[in-house]
Design brief:
Length: 383
């Protein structure tokens, strides 16, 4: 049974939740990020079953179809494809689960981006099936994470679901990631960076952090350093549609390392103001076509401003964001800078667990001031 953290979860409930989740696996059973892995996919899938439902968006299915299905056929794995459309919502999860049962699948394969993978994971959990994830973009850590973000059918954030097991297998073909739109890749970097910016302030309040939490903290520091060193080069590779060593390493950061940090921190320590801002943004329809990490990246900018970071610290973050092709502003998100829009964001995030998790009390006024400060920095010449 999955566990749920909603925007109304109390601090006491969060503490209790971390105890429950102490038995979570901390990584996928197997993670492969290498050239040619799709041609070998059949041999890996066959170890979990011989009938599989493949669920993914139409472009994701098209991107993988030849190599994946050919390999499945070579290894006598029968399959049926389901085209995922829309949100990771209850309706889609139930549909995938029903199709899996009707096909008598003994393993479920999710392909595509975060929402498609999240829906497949949730459906697999309902059916008690092993889940294999094949991401076609590196925009989140969904492929390697035992969690799904649940939205309503219109794209509004509802809650997060946490499962007792991570995906059994993750297969990443670097050339597929390199040919995807660069905004998705940038989104993944920003979502990954949030682990450092959200974990750091919460970690500072823990008197005696256990080894798991300390490991998460050190890995998030490593993540930040690797992004600073290789993020821009990896983004440039995606711009050109080619693979290089930096790209392969940042794919690992976006998918594997980020999921590992989330598991080691028992999820709740990496839910801070940045993700609360994301959840508030999801209630503005203008943001529904924006990738998860783009909204989280904007949330990072707001969070550091709310925390009272110095101008030097803020410029350091904005400089990195610019280097990977992101300028945090409401305009970037397609939102008009109006009092009404800003207040709607705040109203839909102020009671979020990410706000409650911060080590200092956060008021609506503080978030509004943070939003205004981000807009001020967004149009400065800082490179």
């Amino acid at each position: 049974m999955d566990k749920v953290i909603t925007s109304n979860t109390s601090r006491a409930e969060v503490s209790a939740y971390t105890e429950i989740q102490g038995s979570l696996q901390v990584s996928p059973s197997r993670y492969l990020n290498k050239s040619g892995v799709l041609k070998e996919s059949g041999q890996y899938v066959k170890s979990f079953g011989t009938r599989t439902l493949i669920s993914g968006g139409i472009r994701a299915l098209q991107a993988l179809e030849d190599k994946l299905t050919h390999s499945l056929q070579q290894h006598a794995v029968s399959y049926e494809a389901h085209t995922f459309v829309g949100e990771c919502c209850e309706e889609n999860i139930k549909l995938i689960a029903r199709k899996s049962r009707e096909y008598k699948a003994d393993v479920l394969i999710g392909v595509g981006g975060g929402k498609a993978l999240d829906a497949a994971k949730a459906a697999a959990n309902k059916c008690a099936l092993p889940i294999i994830c094949i991401p076609t973009i590196a925009s989140t850590c969904s492929a390697a994470s035992p969690a799904s973000v649940l939205y309503d059918s219109k794209g509004g954030f509802l809650k997060s679901l946490y499962f007792p097991n991570t995906p059994e297998l993750v297969l990443v073909e670097p050339s597929v990631i390199a040919k995807a739109p660069v905004d998705y890749f940038t989104s993944g970097i920003l979502d990954a960076l949030s682990k450092w910016y959200e974990l750091k302030p919460i970690f500072s309040t823990i008197e005696c952090p256990d080894l798991s939490t300390r490991s998460a903290m050190e890995l998030s520091r490593l993540l930040k350093d690797v992004v600073h060193e290789k993020g821009a080069s990896a983004v440039e590779a995606v711009h050109c549609g080619v693979t290089n060593a930096a790209l392969v390493e940042i794919i690992d950061v976006n998918i594997f390392l980020t999921a590992l940090i989330k598991c080691l921190s028992l999820f709740t320590l990496t839910i801070g103001l940045a993700h609360a801002i994301h959840n508030g943004l999801s209630f503005l329809k203008q943001t529904h076509d924006k990738a998860h990490g783009i909204k989280v990246g904007y949330g990072i900018a707001v969070q550091i401003c709310v925390e009272g970071a110095s101008e030097k610290e803020i410029l350091h973050v904005f400089r990195l964001f610019r280097q990977i092709g992101f300028n945090p502003s409401l305009k970037t998100l397609g939102i008009s800078v109006t009092t009404q829009n800003k207040e709607k964001i705040v109203a839909n995030c102020i009671d979020d667990i990410g706000v409650k998790s911060m080590p200092i009390p956060i008021s609506e006024e503080m978030i509004l001031n943070g939003i205004d400060r981000v807009e001020d920095f967004a149009y400065q010449d800082i490179l």
